[in-house]
């Protein structure tokens, strides 16, 4: 397929093929007589059956289609083609004796792109074909860029999986597991758990936006979190994390986070920077971990982090999540919400199933697994 010349260069018509479908031999000869001298490759068919065979074995850039033909009419044939992926964007111009108002309306309704009334003016026909080719070339270019972008996203996803691997960690009779379900191939949620100085560190963050820009932010977060190992104490770690991220965070972007450190005595110290509060299951009920500090933005909000400490008793469980889990919508745009997530988490802990996968399945079931509007990251600490 030839590409459009740059600027206002004239199209090289010999690079493009036109299929004309009409049961009238005279009309077909007129179309060939009009287009072939200009250099177009012209294919002809006297009915939709012949046209179907030509389309199956030839590349066609523009389809000229009559309406009233023996057997299948042009409108139904056009509708049939639009249901086939490779013909969804094929320019289709109806050439018919229908009056202009009815003909144009019917052409568009059945999937056509334009309408030309018989007898047509050769200059008008060529002008319409020329416009179709320019549009199709742009569409082809966009599709090529889309395929290239999707390929790059797949590669970026593999890189992000290495940076943010799904965790399965056992420590001090506790089991930690995590999962990341991005809106696109890559996303801006970051989640991690690791053992440092005989303590279990639990971290989750949500970078604003989606796709590559958010993924780059999450990579920045990972780098800064990795550098915190040299710093002792949760307060000092959080303070350093804020300072470093606020220096490099682009304008109009933000990061929410939750950072907790669980010691061997099952005492959890944590700080919440504007993140959805984790859910704590204990004694048959689910509650939110209280306490909330500011999110990370490249602006001094004049507020300080709030640090809390709670006991993490045997038999308890924690669920860390990003807001994509609670803001997922059903077909009527009703969000799942915090209360439903609490119910799901309680049912998961009290079931004999894997808590993490149980929660994710129920969350996605809310949208009937059709789609979701944000990245979803989950981490479960089961005691």
UniProtKB/TrEMBL annotation:
Keywords: Coiled coil, Hydrolase, Phosphoprotein. Residues 132-159 form a coiled coil. GO terms for molecular function: phosphatase activity. GO terms for biological process: phosphorelay signal transduction system. InterPro entries: Bact_Sigma-Reg, CheY-like_superfamily, PPM-type-like_dom_sf, PPM-type_phosphatase-like_dom, Sig_transdc_resp-reg_receiver. It comes from the Bacteria. The modification 4-aspartylphosphate is found at residue 66. Transmembrane segments: none annotated. Residues 17-133 form the Response regulatory domain. Gene3D superfamilies: 3.40.50.2300, PPM-type phosphatase domain. It holds the Pfam family Response_reg. This is Response regulator. The lineage of its organism: Bacteria, Pseudomonadati, Spirochaetota, Spirochaetia, Leptospirales.
């Amino acid at each position: 397929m030839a590409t459009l010349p740059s600027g206002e260069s004239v199209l090289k018509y010999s690079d493009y093929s036109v299929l004309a479908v009409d049961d009238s031999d005279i009309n077909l000869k007129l179309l060939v007589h009009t287009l072939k001298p200009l250099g177009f490759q012209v294919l002809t068919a006297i009915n939709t059956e012949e046209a179907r065979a030509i389309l199956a074995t030839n590349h066609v850039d523009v389809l000229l289609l009559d309406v009233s033909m023996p057997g299948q009419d042009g409108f139904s044939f056009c509708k049939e083609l639009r249901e086939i992926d490779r013909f969804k964007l094929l320019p289709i111009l109806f050439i018919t004796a229908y009056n202009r108002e009815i003909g144009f309306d019917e052409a568009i309704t059945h999937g056509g792109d334009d309408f030309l009334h018989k007898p047509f003016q050769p200059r008008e026909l060529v002008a319409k074909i020329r416009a179709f080719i320019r549009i199709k070339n742009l569409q082809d270019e966009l599709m090529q860029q889309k395929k290239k972008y999707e390929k790059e996203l797949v590669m970026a996803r593999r890189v992000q999986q290495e940076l943010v691997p799904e965790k399965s960690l056992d420590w001090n009779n506790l089991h930690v597991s995590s999962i990341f379900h991005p809106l696109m191939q890559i996303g801006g949620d970051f989640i991690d758990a690791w053992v440092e100085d005989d303590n279990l560190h639990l971290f989750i963050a949500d970078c604003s936006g989606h796709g590559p820009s958010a993924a780059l932010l999450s990579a920045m977060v990972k780098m800064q979190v990795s550098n915190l190992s040299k710093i002792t104490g949760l307060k000092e770690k959080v303070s350093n994390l804020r300072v470093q991220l606020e220096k490099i965070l682009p304008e109009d972007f933000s990061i929410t986070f939750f950072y907790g450190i669980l010691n061997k005595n099952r005492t959890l110290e944590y700080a919440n920077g504007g993140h959805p509060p984790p859910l704590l299951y204990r004694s048959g009920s689910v509650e939110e971990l209280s306490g909330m500090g500011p999110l990370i933005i490249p602006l001094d909000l004049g507020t300080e982090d709030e640090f809390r400490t709670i006991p993490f008793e045997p038999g308890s469980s924690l669920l860390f999540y990003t807001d994509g889990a609670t803001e997922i919508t059903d077909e009527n745009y009703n969000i799942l919400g915090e209360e439903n997530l609490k119910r799901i988490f309680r049912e998961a802990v009290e079931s004999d199933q894997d808590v993490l996968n149980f929660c994710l399945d129920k969350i996605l079931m809310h949208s009937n697994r059709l789609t979701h509007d944000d990245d979803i990251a989950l981490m479960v600490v089961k005691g």
